[in-house]
TrEMBL record:
GO BP terms in the entry: regulation of DNA-templated transcription; regulation of nitrogen utilization
Record carries keyword ATP-binding: yes
Entry annotated with the keyword tRNA-binding: no
Function: Member of the two-component regulatory system NtrB/NtrC, which controls expression of the nitrogen-regulated (ntr) genes in response to nitrogen limitation. Phosphorylated NtrC binds directly to DNA and stimulates the formation of open promoter-sigma54-RNA polymerase complexes.
Record CDD domains: AAA (cd00009)
Modified residues (4-aspartylphosphate): 65
Name of the protein in question: DNA-binding transcriptional regulator NtrC
InterPro entries xrefs: AAA+_ATPase (IPR003593), AAA_lid_NorR (IPR058031), CheY-like_superfamily (IPR011006), Homeodomain-like_sf (IPR009057), HTH_Fis (IPR002197), P-loop_NTPase (IPR027417), Sig_transdc_resp-reg_receiver (IPR001789), Sigma_54_int (IPR002078)
Main localisation: cytoplasm
Stretches assigned to the Response regulatory domain: 15-130
Location(s), subcellular: Cytoplasm
GO CC annotation, single: cytoplasm
Taxonomic source organism: Guyparkeria halophila
C-alpha cells in the first residue's frame, strides 16, 4: 500500500483508492494518476480497504476490480452503496465481464472501466467521479461537516415548540412539511428529524428542487436507465434510490413542476417507481420531508400545486419562525457562530460590545440565520480588534437596511467602482504607464477572492466557486496572487 507524494497546495487533495489483486493494474493506475491532483493508495484485496473504511478513513473515489481472492468487488460495492453512498466507485472489469458490469451498475457503481483500458480514459473517469463525489457531499448523504454543525439553537418559544415536535415525531416515519423563510434552518430541522428517527442509520439525502433544471429533475429524483435520453450514457440511481432506508429532504417543493408532482404523489401512495426509461419497478422505502418558503395553499388555489399532493405532504406541518420573530435568540446565535468561525479560521474568538449586540437585535435579518452566520464570519475576519463595536459592523447593519435595498445599493457600489477605475486608468495613462492590466487585473481578482474568502470563512474551494473559478484555476490564482 503506498500513497503518492503530492506537493502541498493548501487545499484538500482528492484521494483515490485502487483495489485490485493484479499488481500491474495497480502500478499502471498509480503512475497514470501521479500526473494529476490525486493521491492514490492501492490495496490488493477488499478486506484491507474495508478495514480503513471501518476506521472512518474515507477516500473521495474508489476504483475496484471485480474478481479478487477474498471478497469480490460486487459484494463490496453493494455494502458501500448502503454504508457510504457518497463515495463513487468505478468498477474495473475484463471484456468477458460485461455481464458483471451491468450488475455493477445495478448495485450502484458510478461507472465501469473495461480492461485493458486507455490511461487517459481512466484519468478522465477519476476526475468525473471526483466531481460527482463533491456534488454528492454538498447535496446528499450527511457530510461530517454538516453533522458537527448540526446544533439547533433556539430558546424562543416558537423554537422550543419545534424541538418538542422533533421529539414527538422521533418514533414515527410520517411525512413532514416544513415552512419557513429562506435561511431559517429548514434543512437543519429536517436533519434533526432524521437523526432522531428510527431511520437514523440510513442515509439522509437532500435535494433542492429549485436548484435543478426542470428537465433534469425527473432523472435526478428517480434515476434513469442507460440511453433513456440523449446524454444518459450510463444508468444512474436517483435520489429516491440513494435515500433507500433513510430520509429524502425535498427543499423548495413549491417549485416542482406539475408533471413531477404527479409522479411524486404516485411514489408516496404506491411505494414504488420506475427509473426514467426503465421497465422494472423499484420499491421505495423512504421517508419524505418536504420544505418550502412559499404558501402552498396559495399555489394550490392558483392551480400550480396539486391539492392531493399538498394533503399527502401536509400530514404534519412545522412552521419555522423568521429570525426577526425570535429576536431573543440573536445574541446566543451570534456568540455560537463567532466561536465556530474562530475555530474554522484558527483565530481568537471575538466578542460583541453591548451596543453592537443591541444593534444586531434591531436589524431585520431578511436572510435569517444564514445571513447572521455570514456576518459572524465576516466580523471574525474583518473586525480589527477582539471586541466588536458598532463601528465594526457592516454598513447594511448599521444603516438598518434589509435585503430589499441591496440590489439597487450594490449596483451603485459597482458603478462607483467602475468610475474610480476609469479615473485611475486615465491618471496612469497620462503618467505614461503601459500594460495597466498587469496592475489592475491582479488587484481586481485579489479583491474578489478576499471578499469571497471572508464570506466563506476561509473555505478556498467554496470561495472559488462563488467567484466562478474552477478547482484548478483557484489553485493557480492563489499561488499567483500570493494568497496562501
Ligand atoms: N436554529 C439554528 N441554530 C443554529 N444554526 C442554524 C439554525 N437555523 C439555521 N442555522 C444555520 O443557518 C444556515 C441556513 O440553514 P438551513 O440551510 O437549514 O436553512 P433553510 O431554511 O433550509 O434555507 P433555504 O430555504 O434557503 O435552503 C445553516 O448554516 C444552518 O446551520
Amino acid at each position: 500500500m503506498q500513497a503518492a507524494d503530492k506537493p502541498t497546495t493548501g487545499r484538500p487533495i482528492p484521494r483515490l483508492w485502487v483495489i485490485d489483486d493484479d499488481q500491474a493494474i495497480r502500478w499502471v493506475l498509480e503512475r497514470a494518476l501521479a500526473t494529476t491532483d490525486f493521491a492514490v493508495e492501492s490495496f490488493d484485496e477488499v478486506a484491507s480497504a474495508q478495514a480503513r473504511l471501518d476506521r472512518g478513513d474515507l477516500p473521495d473515489v474508489i476504483f475496484s476490480d471485480i474478481r479478487m481472492p477474498g471478497e469480490d468487488g460486487l459484494s463490496f460495492l453493494t455494502r458501500l452503496a448502503v454504508e457510504h453512498p457518497e463515495i463513487p466507485v468505478v468498477i474495473m472489469t475484463a471484456h468477458s465481464d460485461l455481464e458483471s458490469a451491468v450488475g455493477a451498475f445495478e448495485k450502484g457503481a458510478f461507472d465501469y472501466l473495461a480492461k485493458p483500458f486507455d490511461i487517459d480514459e481512466a484519468v478522465r473517469l477519476a476526475e468525473r467521479a471526483y466531481d460527482a463525489s463533491r456534488e454528492r457531499a454538498q447535496h446528499a448523504a450527511v457530510p461530517e461537516e454538516a453533522e458537527s454543525g448540526s446544533e439547533l439553537i433556539g430558546n424562543a418559544p416558537a423554537m422550543q415548540e419545534i424541538f418538542r415536535a422533533i421529539g414527538r415525531l422521533a418514533r414515527s416515519s410520517v411525512t413532514v412539511l416544513i415552512n419557513g423563510e429562506s435561511g431559517t434552518g429548514k434543512e437543519l430541522v429536517a436533519r434533526a428529524l432524521h437523526r432522531h428517527s428510527q431511520r437514523r442509520d440510513g442515509p439522509f439525502v437532500a435535494l433542492n428542487t429549485a436548484a435543478i433544471p426542470k428537465d433534469l429533475l425527473e432523472s435526478e429524483l428517480f434515476g434513469h436507465e442507460k440511453g433513456a435520453f440523449t446524454g444518459a450514457a450510463a444508468q444512474r440511481r436517483g435520489r429516491f434510490e440513494q435515500a433507500q432506508g433513510g430520509t429524502l429532504f425535498l427543499d423548495e417543493i413549491g417549485d416542482m413542476p406539475l408533471e413531477l408532482q404527479t409522479r411524486l404523489l404516485r411514489v408516496l401512495s404506491d411505494g414504488h417507481f420506475y427509473r426514467v426509461g426503465g421497465t422494472s419497478l423499484i420499491q421505495s422505502d423512504v421517508r419524505v420531508i418536504a420544505a418550502t418558503h412559499q404558501r402552498l395553499e396559495e399555489l394550490v388555489k392558483d392551480g400550480r400545486f396539486r391539492e392531493d399532493l399538498y394533503h399527502r405532504l401536509n400530514v404534519i406541518r412545522l412552521k419555522l419562525p423568521s429570525l426577526r420573530e425570535r429576536v431573543e435568540d440573536i445574541p446566543q446565535l451570534m456568540r455560537f457562530f463567532l466561536v465556530r468561525a474562530a475555530e474554522e479560521l484558527g483565530v481568537p474568538v471575538k466578542t460583541l460590545t453591548r451596543a453592537a449586540e443591541a444593534r444586531l437585535c434591531d436589524y431585520p435579518w431578511p436572510g435569517n440565520v444564514r445571513e447572521l452566520e455570514n456576518i459572524a464570519r465576516w466580523l471574525t475576519v474583518m473586525a480589527p480588534g477582539n471586541e466588536i463595536s458598532i463601528d465594526d459592523l457592516p454598513d447594511t447593519i448599521t444603516e438598518g437596511l434589509g435585503g430589499e435595498h441591496t440590489a439597487a445599493g450594490d449596483d451603485q457600489l459597482l458603478s462607483r467602482w467602475t468610475s474610480d477605475l476609469s479615473r485611475w486608468a486615465d491618471a496612469r495613462l497620462k503618467a505614461g504607464d503601459q500594460d495597466l492590466l498587469a496592475t489592475a487585473g491582479p488587484a481586481f481578482e485579489r479583491t474578489l477572492l478576499q471578499a469571497a474568502l471572508a464570506f466563506t470563512g476561509g473555505h478556498k474551494q467554496k470561495a472559488a466557486a462563488l467567484i466562478g473559478w474552477g478547482r484548478n484555476t483557484v489553485t493557480r490564482k492563489l499561488k499567483e496572487l500570493g494568497e496562501h
